[in-house]
Design a protein that fits this description.
Distance between the termini of chain B: 41 Å
CATH architecture of the largest domain in chain B: 3-Layer(aba) Sandwich
Structural class of chain A: mainly alpha
Distance between the termini of chain A: 22 Å
Structural class of chain B: alpha/beta
Strand content of chain B: 15-25%
CATH superfamily of chain A: DhaL domain
Number of helices of chain B: 8
Mean pLDDT of chain A: 92
Order of helices and strands of chain B: HEEEEHEHEHHEEEHEHEEHEE
Order of helices and strands of chain A: HHHHHHHHHH
CATH topology of chain A: Serine Threonine Protein Phosphatase 5, Tetratricopeptide repeat
Helix content of chain A: 55-70%
Number of strands of chain A: 0
Shape of chain B: globular
Oligomer: heterodimer
Number of domains of chain B: 2
Largest sheet of chain A: none
Number of strands of chain B: 14
Mean pLDDT of chain B: 95
Chain lengths: 214, 334
């Protein structure tokens, strides 16, 4: 059941494209956060990714598991807010489970799922609460299914793009029960969750990079 | 946006430098990472640390000094500070008898302090303040937010810690004080985060946000502005409703500490008008105002609006509220 990913791509190569991708969506993410949050999500996210970009050269020389750890620590000290500890928990946990010697899709899937579970524990949250988990959990499940069905990485990336867009959209109709928008209650219905949106943007960009690099 | 600002990226650094220059005898601002400590550190008392997003000044940096906080960790505007700030600050102060973290119940603050708590070797305990009556507590919300009642908790716990009390005693007393506080806020305008450059929310000229949080996050309802007495009457009613729901017993002899807090852009004259209104309402209910505080203490940048906090006084809270305090923004009995 092990599918070896040919020449695993260095995680650091995704940093600049990610920064570009979130910058393109600045207005959208900001206006979502002003509508149902407190307007700082984009600023914090950009500060975090920019901080990671500043250490790209150090990351380049590290194996992916150590890159994930450094990224987690950098996010922890640069982002703040709720998204800082949540994103950091993902990468720190991911780094513990990612096996550089055996970088199969199955192992990536396990590390990704453990990372998402760390977000659930840190945020005491789960799917259906109008948060980033509404994108991350279904994507983790999709990757798991793909690793069982020996799906091709390109085809998987295409499916993840479709899934994450669909899931971010689905947060529009949800009543928030976690995060800053809970105070709004019913008034938050109709607005997409900004954290779900930013996760979708990042995931789609990484998938697009994988597809374009073949 | 029209603000006193040089560049959005330097805003926090320059503001903290000003705090340092204005109060060199009281505090020390540390940079990279940002944290503020007392000028004279006493590592043998329980170290009281708080922090949160900037933009609520004087909370928390303005409350550093004798009788109140030992450490404050300011985050970026409206953004929780990060664990490395807390860890560096605690490491600098070298506490011998533990650290008490006073954290407003916002998910970002809670998670960042929680991670710091897990990462330090020093004995520590936490008080989550959650005095905001606006949020109806249920399994569908994250719980009540910590707002202006936080400064009451910081004042009375700070006083107790000064007397040499243990970490456990300080935590218990803080939880007790938090339980006796209830607050509610009303916004007349939005506020603008310097780096965002635009108001956080849109609000029409004739509308108010009832139950607003201290970041401009929406509250219970949007409604038309009415005369002040009617708005304040609803505010006080929301607070008593909250006390009833939490089973805080209010009787004929009950005496309150009343805090009327401005959000940043409301003149003191209006805050006193609100205080007058609260006084009349409590008199009608034959309840007493034992202590009072009126001013801008837990702000939301340039938001116009105000909050009312009632804290039910008992002998211990009264004693520790009255005790001497010497900080940039609260100062008496010295």
């Amino acid at each position: 059941m092990l599918i070896r990913m040919s020449n695993p791509i260095s995680f650091s190569s995704f940093i600049s494209p990610t920064l570009q991708a979130i910058s393109i969506h600045e207005n959208e993410i900001e206006s979502l956060d002003r509508a149902i949050g407190d307007g700082d999500h984009f600023i914090n996210l950009k500060r975090g990714v920019t901080a990671i970009q500043s250490i790209t050269h150090e990351l380049d020389s590290l194996p992916n598991s150590q890159q994930a750890k450094s990224i987690g620590m950098k996010l922890l000290s640069s982002v703040g807010g709720a998204s800082g500890p949540l994103f950091a928990s993902f990468f720190l946990e991911f780094s513990k489970h990612y096996n550089d010697e055996n970088s199969t899709l199955e192992n990536f899937c396990q590390a990704f799922t453990e990372g998402v579970d760390a977000i659930k524990r840190r945020g005491k949250s789960d799917v259906g609460e109008k948060t980033m988990l509404d994108v991350l959990v279904p994507v983790a499940e999709l990757i798991k299914l793909a690793s069982l069905n020996k799906l091709d990485i390109i085809e998987l990336s295409q499916q993840v793009i479709t899934k994450s867009i669909e899931c971010a959209e689905s947060t529009k109709s949800m009543l928030p029960t976690k995060g800053r928008s809970t105070g709004l209650g019913d008034r938050a219905i109709g607005h997409m969750d900004p954290g779900a949106k930013s996760c979708q943007v990042i995931i789609c960009e990484i998938c697009n990079q994988i597809i374009s690099r073949g | 946006m029209k603000k006193f600002i040089n560049h959005a990226d330097d805003f926090l650094e320059q503001s903290l430098s000003g705090l340092q220059s204005a109060h060199p005898e009281l505090l020390q601002v540390h940079k990279d990472p940002f944290f503020v400590t007392r000028k004279n550190i006493n590592p043998h008392k329980v170290q009281i640390i708080s922090g949160g997003g900037s933009g609520h000044e004087p909370l928390h940096t303005g409350f550093i000094g004798h009788g109140m906080l030992d450490i404050a960790c300011p985050g970026h505007i409206f953004t929780s500070p990060t664990p490395d700030q807390m860890i560096a600050a605690i490491d600098y102060c070298q506490p011998k008898n533990g650290v008490l973290m006073i954290v407003k119940n916002y998910s970002g603050d809670v998670m960042n302090f929680e991670m710091a708590s897990e990462m330090i070797d020093t004995k520590n305990a936490t008080i989550l303040t959650n005095d905001d009556a606006a949020v109806i507590n249920s399994s569908y919300t994250e719980g009540k937010r910590g707002v202006a009642g936080t400064l009451i908790v910081e004042k009375v716990v700070g006083s107790l810690a000064e007397s040499g009390a243990s970490l456990e005693e300080c935590q218990q007393f803080g939880l007790h004080a938090n339980n006796l506080c209830s607050s509610i806020g009303v916004a007349l305008t939005s506020c603008t985060i310097p780096a965002a450059g635009k108001p956080t929310f849109d609000i029409e000229n004739d509308q108010i946000e009832f139950g607003v949080g201290i970041h401009g996050e929406p509250g219970r309802r949007r409604e038309a502005i009415r005369e002040a007495n009617l708005i304040v009457s609803d505010m006080v009613e929301a607070i008593f409703q909250d006390f009833r729901e939490r089973d805080v017993k209010i009787g004929g002899n009950s005496e309150f500490l009343v805090v009327v807090n401005g959000f940043g852009a409301t003149p003191l004259s209006e805050l006193y008008l609100i205080f007058n209104s609260v006084t009349n309402i409590l008199n009608e209910k034959q309840l007493n105002i034992g202590r009072s505080l009126v001013g801008n203490f837990t702000t939301a940048l340039d938001m116009a609006g105000a909050s009312v906090t009632l804290c039910l006084l008992d002998d211990a809270i009264r004693k520790h509220w009255d005790s001497s305090v010497y900080t940039p923004s609260l100062r008496w009995g010295i």
